[in-house]
Amino acid sequence: MNTCVHQKQFASDNYAGICPEALKALEKANSGHETSYGDDRWTKMACNKFREVFEADCEVFFVFNGTAANGLSLASLCQSYHSIICQRTAHVETDECGAPEFFSHGSKLLLADGENGKLDPCEMTRIVKKRTDIHYPKPRVASVTQATELGTVYSLAELRVIEKTAQGLNLKIHMDGARLANAIASLGCAPRETTVDVGVDVLCLGGPKNGLALGEAVIFFDLEAADEFAYRCKQAGQLAAKMRFIAAQWLGVLDKGIWLNYARHANSCAELLEKEIKKIPEIKLLYPRQANSVFVEMPEGLPEKLKAKGWKFYNFIGTGGARLMCSWDSSEESVKAIVADMKKSLKGLEKSRGLGRSPNSELQDYDK
Ligand SMILES: *Cc1c(COP(=O)(O)O)cnc(C)c1O
Prior knowledge:
368 residues; alpha/beta; Aspartate Aminotransferase, domain 2; 2 domains; 14 helices; 42% helix; globular; binds pyridoxal-5'-phosphate
């Protein structure tokens, strides 16, 4: 079945619908009555499937979204007087309305610099060593996003340096994996290599951007840190009565590596988009494209022209520029169509600018 659809949007992988395998799994789980609140066979099977996929003993919890997963898992690693080191463009800092601070009752996020959206290990050391007195919020966690908010991917070597640095500084490691599938597909590694093997204590694994309807899996590789986590979920309004419908979707996509196939597809659409944009000198690529998004700086007027043609994309994510995001069902056709519209709009822009300056000579050029 060809599931790729021509949509006029590169705004978000969250805009996409549910992939067929997740939908089928939902239907399958919709067979009669089951015990509620996670005590059902689908949830048990999904937890076991995660143990198999990550080749590790782990405690798994299902919550509704990424903000809850990050906020609650960070809170479980911290006391209220602790702090969390993250890169300054991290979702936990910029897009969660203070949820990590709220759920932890005050743990402070300490912002680190780092190129291309990645946490710089030297910054971790600098931030921890800067102060050791009682007036400073005690650093407790390093939070990394894989793939990053800027569409880059930490290499395994980079993650190993972060692990070693964290060990030396007595920091736990939290991974925001809203797009972990895209990172795994990009690295071509086993899921465990970019998580358990590099010392991740807790992973927040995103579903919707990978083709699920909703739901995030919070996976504790540090089993002790999972202690009483279920109470946090319940208190925060994150314990689904019909949890089987969050859990079952994962069974649909984790089977036979389907989640990674979709991620690979999204990545390759972004790769094609990158390749085509590289041929347009007026548009500048902002970061290395390593997952399913392309960040660009467009000449003045072009974003408006594209939006007027019906294209949707965001301008405010990261450090400026436009983000073009591909999803599990993006199509080559959409990629080619937006590139064609970029070229056409650029010609139109040059033409109108040209007309403003010297109408006659410029006009001739565009009649060719
Ligand atoms: C999308 C996303 C999340 C999850 O956001 P919710 O809207 O709360 O589900 C978390 N982290 C990153 C990096 C994201 O891109």
